User: Fold this.
Amino acid sequence: MTPFEYLLLFALIVLGVAVNDLAVSLHRLFGRPVRWDALAPLAAVVAFLKIVSQWWTWYGGAGLASALTFELFLGILTGSVLLSLLAACALPDERPPGEAIDLKAHYARFAGQYWILFLLHWLVARGMSVLAEVSTTGTVDVIKSTYLIPPLAASLIIVRTRWWHGLCLVGFTAYYISQLLGRTLN
Assistant:
């Protein structure tokens, strides 16, 4: 293993824990009384796609290993922890046996926290991307379609209208899927 792989393995373990939390939380929804609602499962899908997108980005960044500093590594770990927290609040935690799980109430209770974590992750990930660009090329591509993400996420922190949350969750799902469609690991 290269030094980059050793460092990245730690961050990937955190992401693996996040995917495991999503899987366990999803499993809890089966075989129990559940009041279904689309927003919490959509939030879980977005969290999952962000995790996969992050891993894919890191895999493609192996060539930047020589520029990886301790500060960049802390940023990578911070982003991993933020994604893990995002995944953890997407679906409900364990409930006492027989207690119904209300996905609408869960999303209403955790939506603010979810979108704050979402926005914080974007800020950290974009900051790490800028640092990596500057350290390797000396320049930064300032025109990015991803700059639409912060105002949308901020609006979701403030606006509690369910249709807006649903529209943005579907939009983010499409965005993260479109980022990865057709890409290979080579």
